[in-house]
Structure formats: C-alpha cells, structure tokens
C-alpha cells in the first residue's frame, strides 16, 4: 500500500466514473460493472499487486443496484473500507465490504428515488414546462439547472462524506471491537431488505379453485392464511437453489418467462 491513503485526486476520479454507473446495466447483477469501474482508481491507489487489485475488483462485481445520484456516498464508504483492508489485511474481513453495500443500497435507493425522481424532477419539470409552454427559451435551461445542481452536489459531497464517515466509523469500531456486531447487523438488515423486496415487489398469485358441493375454495386464500406471499417466496427459493447449482442466469430468466406464460395459459397463475 502507498504511504499516502486515498487522496482527493483519487476521489475525484471515483466521482467522474460514478456517472458511468448505468452504462453497463444488466439484469443479472444490475449496476455491478459500473460500480466496479468507479472503484478502479481506489484499488489502484491502495493495492500494489495485480492479484490484490483483481481480488478487490472481483469484490465489487457482486450485485448492486441503487439510485445513481446517491451511489457515490456508498462508493465513499467502500473506499474507506478498502483502505482499512489495505492497512490491516490480516484483521479485516473483506466480506464486510459487500455486506455494508447490500445493507445500504436499498434504504439509500428509497431516499434517492423519493427525493430525485419523485420530487426534484417533478418540480424542475413543472417549472421548466410552464415557461417553455409560453415560448420562453429559459424553460429547458431552468429545468436542467434546477435538477442538476442539487444532483451534482449530492454526488460530490455524498462521496466525500461517505469516505469520511467510513473512515471515522471504522476507526472507532476497530478500537472498540464492534466491527463483528456491525457486520452481523448489516447482514441481518440486508436479508430483511431482500425479504421485504420479495414480499412487496414480486406478485405471484394462483387462480386455482376447487368446488366442494355448493361452495368453492380458492387456493390463494388458503395460502395467504398459512403464509402471506408464499408463492413469491417459493419462486425466489427455487431461483436461489438454481443459482447455487451454477445454472446460468440467462437460462433461469428464460425459464421463468416461459413458466409464467405457460402457467397463465393453463389458468394456474
């Protein structure tokens, strides 16, 4: 590791690279390629061997997805954790880097989506459109300014604050021995977020009914009484097992689409 830790030049490089977060978006790991691309300056700065840099790059190729405007804040925390790993690799658990990313990306995305997509963009567009509809050329310009000034400031200062917060927090946790507890909490939160996403964003219901004498029984009502969102949970567990068996995500995606169409045609879903 270099004597000098991550400097302003490295953070600026991460800042500019963060704009490419969505450039290689994919349905397997979403923004992972963009995230890894943004972290390259940090890895080059901290690690001197190709092997260490490759391991760092591989760490950041895991699943990642959040609001792009707030992603630099998480990158700053990741940079601080990579720095801590480079300083003390024997006593630092590298899995904690991705555990913290997984725990932060969904809550931060909730704030970022509400703030930028749901509020700021609407307000900026409303003001811009009202001027543009009157033939005022300042309409589109004002829209760009109103939206992008807070956007760029959030990116820039989010990265710096994330890095500073990560460093301060890691030093305190290392001194108090609280790192293991924090990682355990981060893992629990990450699993809760994934569970919440499955229950709220994945909708799978069955239309199968059975007729008993003069009454009919809906299977979905019985399943909901046993465990709400049982079918989405079952679908996720099946996909999880297939991934663990190294089945290609592309094949799983195609099989999921085909299964959905077939089961719907058979009036099962």
Q: Which of globular, elongated, flat, extended, rod-shaped describes the shape?
A: globular
Order of helices and strands: HHHHHHHEEHHH
As residue ranges, the low-confidence spans are none
Q: Major sheet: size, sense and barrel closure?
A: 2 strands, antiparallel
Q: What gyration radius follows from the Cα positions, in whole Å? A: 23 Å
Task: Please state the structural category.
Answer: mainly alpha
Please state roughly what percent of the residues sit in beta strands, choosing from under 5%, 5-15%, 15-25%, 25-35%, 35-45% or over 45%: under 5%
Mean pLDDT: 86
Distance between the termini: 56 Å
* Sheet with most strands: strand arrangement: 1-2
Strand segment count: 2
Per DSSP, the total helix count is 10
Q: Percent helix among the residues?
A: over 70%
Describe how the helices and strands are arranged.
Blueprint: H1 8-17, H2 32-46, H3 50-59, H4 71-87, H5 95-132, H6 138-176, H7 179-201, E1 209-212, E2 215-218, H8 219-226, H9 230-244, H10 249-265
Antiparallel strand pairs: 1-2
Helix pairs in contact: 1-2, 1-6, 2-3, 2-4, 4-5, 4-6, 5-6, 5-7
Short structural summary:
With 269 residues, the chain is mostly helical. 71% of the residues lie in helices and 3% in strands. α4 runs antiparallel to α5 (95-132) and α5 (95-132) packs antiparallel against α6.
